[in-house]
């Protein structure tokens, strides 16, 4: 009988002691990473000026592309709060593309008279002289220009140039 009572007391003691042991042993866990990780937001909201110019633009001959005319298209995408990426592509379905350019431009300023202006510097040859290029957006027209008269010829073949006016398209640029 004493053995039975001893077993009962031992069982009851283990029953109540088990959660305490589990709790005490659970407290010894150390998480070295706790609090060390910080969430970094990589999404940057573009300024209203950047949002306004984002889209696809094309030369005047783009509307006659089905009749075989050569054309140049420009894709403008946001790249941060005040920067845009610019990709220039030309017709490539029938012949070698005449123009190709990939670059990044920074917001220079905006006003009612000039619209929204972005600027970048390009190296248009093997020398170390950089040329400024301006991208002016006004009334759904993109005008590309540079103070260096020949800087924008470097990216086109056959005597072509990136300099000129491009109209904003209502849809996506069709590359072929």
Notes on the structure:
The protein is an alpha+beta fold and 176 residues long. It has a domain at 48-168: Lipocalin (Beta Barrel), CATH 2.40.128. The chain contains two helices and eight strands, in the order H-H-E-E-E-E-E-E-E-E. The protein has an eight-stranded antiparallel β-barrel with strand order 1-2-3-4-5-6-7-8. Strand 5 (115-123) and strand 6 form a beta hairpin. The longest helix is centred in the first third of the chain and has 25 residues, at 2-26. The radius of gyration is 33 Å and the shape is globular. The chain starts with a helix and ends in an 8-residue tail after the last strand. Residues 21-37 have low confidence and may be disordered.
Short summary of the structure?
Helix content is 18%, strand content 34%. The chain is α+β, with helices and mostly antiparallel strands and 176 residues long.
Topology:
Elements: H1 2-26, H2 48-53, E1 55-58, E2 72-78, E3 83-90, E4 100-111, E5 115-123, E6 130-138, E7 141-145, E8 164-168
Antiparallel strand pairs: 1-2, 1-8, 2-3, 3-4, 4-5, 5-6, 6-7, 7-8
Tally of DSSP β-strands: 8
Q: What series of H and E elements makes up the topology?
A: HHEEEEEEEE
Numbering strands along the chain, what is their spatial order in the largest sheet?
1-2-3-4-5-6-7-8
Alpha-carbon Rg, integer: 33 Å
Q: Do you know the CATH architecture of the domain at 48-168?
A: Beta Barrel
Shape type: globular
Please give the share of residues in helix.
10-25%
Structural class: alpha+beta
**Tally of separate helices:** 2
- What percent of residues are in strands? 25-35%
Mind describing the biggest β-sheet? 8 strands, antiparallel, barrel
CATH class of the domain at 48-168: Mainly Beta
Gap between N and C termini, in Å? Answer: 96 Å
Average of the residue pLDDT scores: 80
Uncertain stretches: 21-37
Under CATH, the topology of the domain at 48-168 is which? Lipocalin
């Amino acid at each position: 009988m004493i053995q039975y009572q001893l077993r009962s007391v031992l069982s009851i003691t283990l029953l109540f002691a088990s959660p305490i042991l589990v709790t005490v042993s659970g407290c010894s866990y150390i998480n070295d990473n706790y609090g060390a990780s910080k969430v970094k937001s990589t999404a940057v909201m573009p300024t209203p000026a950047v949002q306004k110019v984002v889209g696809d633009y094309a030369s005047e001959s783009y509307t006659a592309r089905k009749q075989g005319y050569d054309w140049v298209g420009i894709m403008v995408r946001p790249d941060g709060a005040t920067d845009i990426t610019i990709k220039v592509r030309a017709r490539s379905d029938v012949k070698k593309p005449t123009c190709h350019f990939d670059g990044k431009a920074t917001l220079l300023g905006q006003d009612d008279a000039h619209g929204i202006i972005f600027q970048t510097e390009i190296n248009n040859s093997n020398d170390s002289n950089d040329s400024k290029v301006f991208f002016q957006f006004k009334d759904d027209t993109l005008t590309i220009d540079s103070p260096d008269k020949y800087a924008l010829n470097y990216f086109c073949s056959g005597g072509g140039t990136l300099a000129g006016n491009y109209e904003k398209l209502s849809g996506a640029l069709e590359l072929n």
